[in-house]
Amino acid sequence: MHCPFCRYSDSRVIDSRTSDDGLSIRRRRQCPECGRRFSTTETASLSVIKRNGSVVPFSREKIVAGVRKACQGRPVTDGDLAILAQKVEESLRSTGASQLEANDIGLAILPELRELDEVAFLRFASVYQAFENLEDFEAAIAQLRVEDAARPEKG
Length: 155
Fold this sequence. Notes:
155 residues; alpha+beta; three-stranded antiparallel β-sheet; three-stranded mixed β-sheet; 6 strands; elongated
């Protein structure tokens, strides 16, 4: 790590701490040449391979924006959407991959959105999975009912 003051090509790590969200590491460093101290923040980059083949940085904001459309008129707050996006990002990072297909992100959104609001889940799934007719909706609803019946009661 280059010193931002004297541009010396090395520095010594004095202290390392994980950020509150656990997604980055803050390192306190000292330059052996000029003796000045500075901080760095390190994060693992996560990239998305879009359907057209281009690669863009991962963005929680894009998840929130996409899910917000499905949640219009539903009792879902901005805080709920932020938590959903954080959970999705955590599940994607846990795979260890640095590049993800856009499709994988949609697949990671679906279970989190289902827990948040089933109507919003159906709306999102209908676009994401390209529902073409009422039978597609009926099949998705039937699957939700089967899964709900098999799920142990909360409480």
